[in-house]
Amino acid sequence: MAKHDIVPEEVPTDDLADRVRAGLRSVEDPDLGGSVLESGLVADVSVEDRAVRIAADLAGFDEPTAEDVTEALRRKALATPGVERATVEGETPADAAAEDIDGAAGVDTVIAVASAKGGVGKTTVSTQLARALAAEPDREVGLFDADLYGPNVPELLDLEGPVSADAEGNAEPIDNGNLTAMSVGLIANDEPLAWRGAMAHEAVSELFEDTAWGDLDALVIDLPPGTGDIVLTALQSLPIDGAVLVSTPHPTSVSDTARSATLFEENGVPLLGTVVNMRGFTCECGREHDLFPEADIEAELDQPVLCELPFDERVRDFGTDVPDETAALAETVLERLDDVGDLSVPDHALDLRGLPKSIRHEQATEEFRATEPGEAFYLINDHDPSPLAAELVSAVGREGPPGDAFAEYAVRRQAPDEWVMVVER
Ligand SMILES: Nc1ncnc2c1ncn2[C@@H]1O[C@H](COP(=O)(O)OP(=O)(O)OP(=O)(O)O)[C@@H](O)[C@H]1O
Q1: Which of 134, 135, 180, 230 could staple 141 via S-S, CB 3.0–4.6 A?
Q2: Start and end of every MIP18 family-like domain (predicted)?
Q3: Using a 6 Å cutoff on CB, does residue 307 contact ligand 1?
């Protein structure tokens, strides 16, 4: 007889949760001794449709110990009559660290501006975009100049140090009227080369996090050019909601931009589109000239062109004026952010973070198999869960890439340590 046959059809979930808790009482906390319930290792037990979820604080254990504790908790839960499935979810070191106050905690939306090549107008676009966003009176906007080797934002915005620290020791951004800004150039004075070296790539994310941004609606980051270590670390560690790429219409700039686009996609940062800078110019007689009339950049990069900016020598003298093209760019960027916005994650999503890596795949496939056909399965992980999707395909006897095998399949990085995957079973 299957064990769930010996309990009534409808088991009140509170009773079942109590019975699971009673069973867990005999599992010992390997660190503090005594029961995992008394020691606080098990923070919560919840039940839905005979499926048990145990929230456990495994952050302080090494991998093998966390694995043993997880297995012991699952076995005990599954041994409780009426329980069909048991999942253990761990509080991650990242959850614990989230309690630390981070200078960027009050920032709603982070937009990165990047280019594969130097000199294509990335800083120009970043500052204009930030100014255009800040032109809306109710919107608080910041600009972070992460370009270690050519921090030009202080010059463009006419910013000067010194940078002072607030009571928590975080750097105060410089107030530029309607914008607040921080630049590695303000910290490194005239010696940006001093940032070179093994730790340079970490310096960008440290300065970002150690800046007291306050409550901002939007923060624009001017990334360094290229696809090197600094950009990669910034992509992986900063909470970027979407990226704007800047390219000129020149074929080499476009093909380099395609490489940047791949890097962003591989790191789960949504691409908002491309700004094509210096597309053409208007001569004194008033005629417009397109320098590369054949270039179909939208098709080549397979992503939207957000706007095309002409070559305009007045570009450095706009000051706080917002040209029509950049005002429209800001609106398009906000619309695109809505399009690529975070997936809304239900409470019952399977959170694999904090669990020993060796059991994550098993838990995910088990839970996915138990999902009703046609229902959406949500999974949260601390790194890209895409490789797991192939296992889900075969777990339910399907074939092909996940995008073809399932009616709905999406992976989104909501925060540096929060990747969400949704798959329709
Ligand atoms: N649309 C434009 N029309 C005319 N000049 C422009 C335009 N966009 C940028 N420029 C000029 O081109 C130069 C490079 O621009 P910018 O500093 O914005 O590029 P970048 O990509 O940030 O460069 P890097 O990161 O390599 O320092 C600047 O002198 C800038 O004033």
Answers
A1: 134
A2: 18-88
A3: no
Written out in words, the top-level CATH class of the domain with range 1-91 is alpha beta
Residue nearest to atom 19 of ligand 1 (CA): 121
Q: Are 128 and 113 in contact (CB under 8 A)?
A: no
226 labelled binding-site residue: no
- We find that the CATH architecture of domain 107-339 is 3-Layer(aba) Sandwich (3.40)
Q: What is the mean pLDDT of residues 2-24?
A: 67
> Please, which residues bridge with residue 418 across strands?
415
* Nearest atom, ligand 1, residue 147 CA: 25
Which residue minimizes the CA distance to atom 16 of ligand 1?
121
Q: Is 253's pLDDT higher than 50?
A: yes
Domain ranges across the chain:
1-91, 107-339, 342-425
76 is in an annotated binding site: no
Task: Yes or no: say if 257 and 122 are a contact pair by the CB < 8 Å rule.
Answer: no
ipTM: 0.95
CB 280 near ligand 1, within 6 Å = no
Atom of ligand 1 nearest to the CA of 125: 18
CA 295 to chain CA centroid, Å, is: 32
Tell whether residue 65 is among the known ligand binding residues.
Answer: no
For 377, the enclosing helix (H) or strand (E) is strand 376-381
Q: What is the mean pLDDT of the chain?
A: 84
How remote is the CA of residue 281 from the centroid of ligand 1, in Å? Answer: 15
* DSSP letters spanning 188-200: STT-GGGG-STTH
**What's the whole-model pTM score?**
0.71
Q: Is 225 in the pocket of ligand 1 (CB under 6 A)?
A: yes
Specify the 3-state DSSP secondary structure of 48: strand
Confidence of residue 193 (pLDDT cuts 50, 70, 90): very low
CATH says 342-425 is which class?
alpha beta
Q: Does the annotation list 180 as a binding residue?
A: no
Is the model's pLDDT at 314 over the cut of 50? Answer: yes
Kindly report, residue by residue over 207-217, the tens digit of the pLDDT: 888 899 999 99
State yes or no: 117 annotated in a binding site.
Answer: yes
